[in-house]
Here is the input.
Amino acid sequence: MELILQQMPIVISSLNVGFLQTLRLFFVTLLGAVPLGLVIAFGSMSKFKPLSIFTRVIVWIVRGSPLMIQLLIIYYFPGLVLHNPIWGGGESGRFLAAAVAFIINYACYFSEIYRGGIQSIPVGQIEAGKVLGMTKSQIFWRVKLVQVIKAIVPPMSNEIITLVKDTSLARIIALQEIIWAGQAFMKGSQGISGAIWPMFFTGVYYLACNGILTLLLGWVEKKLNYYQ
Amino acid sequence: MLNAVDLKKSFDGLGVLRGVSLRVEQGEVVAVIGKSGSGKSTLLRCLNNLERVDGGTIEIGGQTLVKDGVYGPPKEQRKICLKMGYVFQNFNLFPHMNVLRNLTEAQRCVLGRSKEQAESYARQLLKKVGLEDKEAAYPCQLSGGQQQRVAIARALALDPEILCFDEPTSALDPLLTQEVLGVIRALTLEKRTMVVVTHEMNFAREVADRVVFMENGVIVAEGKPEEVFESDKVKAFIGLGD
Here is the structure.
């Protein structure tokens, strides 16, 4: 116990640095996947069959295989197979590859949530807009959008919380996120080696982060409950 | 005012409208009756461009929506159909907007009225349907009858020349039915042009200038209520249906 207290300051500052990278990956993924998911959703709902089939196959592949494998392929394939290391070296290259893999993966999950949300709007709502003389885009922005958002907030909350934890998968390509930072003290770093507790302690960060997110998303959900 | 000629419409090869012609004159109230599946709602939906006809011609207020099954550009269609107001069986109010917003939204984004203009007109209409104290309520806080009255006010807000009702009381219990019928009855006194698809035979008899009886996608009887309700086919229908 005394030893842990001694190690604490060094470990915490190191975990903080790792957690910053975790958060960076989290926010970049959200920023990219939220709009990309909408594009994919419209693709999969397209009346142009080849496009909708193509999109659905991509979504099936991405959702049907482990994110960890996708990370490995996206990071290693260009360099090792194509001999064209597009990601560049070092931490920034790893981050870029991880961000691309996460954005694609999460956009596919989001697209299915969006699609469900859009298709859950009763056809009567669209018809009501139509008989009131609204154009298609007016119906989308004024009639559907708020209702879609209300429908997708609960499933999106789930995905967002999962994303926080999934960022740890980037450890597999040695991205220096919080798990990597904790693990360093097992191997030996800054005069501490063979310490397993920093790894366990990373769980506290995830819990705290998801606690805040849960409160925030719950608040959004409640705000949208002004109508049934 | 409204002239539909030889309308044809089929769903998956099943003829729902098989040559229906209907004229509605200015200030006339037409009730369309018939069994479920007779095509009466489909007729109304076609007149309001919610369904496309396969053949036939529809003229609204002297403008042609569709001629021999061929439609004009969408923008033109929207403009012509603005002469029509439509009240749904299931109200279809916008659940995320309060009552006032339900009435002002299209006034503002479709007709380009100012907020003040739209709101004062909306309040006037809410008063007319007896809901002036409900402007801040959301649809989920209203009874079915109140929701339908809001829906009628919403349709009126765009000043349609012809108001169409698709079984406006079918989703309501008898008590609420009466309050909605009361509002529609009051509209007939203003000499509004209306087409009402309904199961309420007594109401049709009472308010309609003309009754149209449909069966299997065609009009089989048409005329003044007292005449139509005396025909054998309609008697048989009322005996069965009511």
Notes: Chain A has a mean pLDDT of 93. The radius of gyration of chain A is 22 Å.
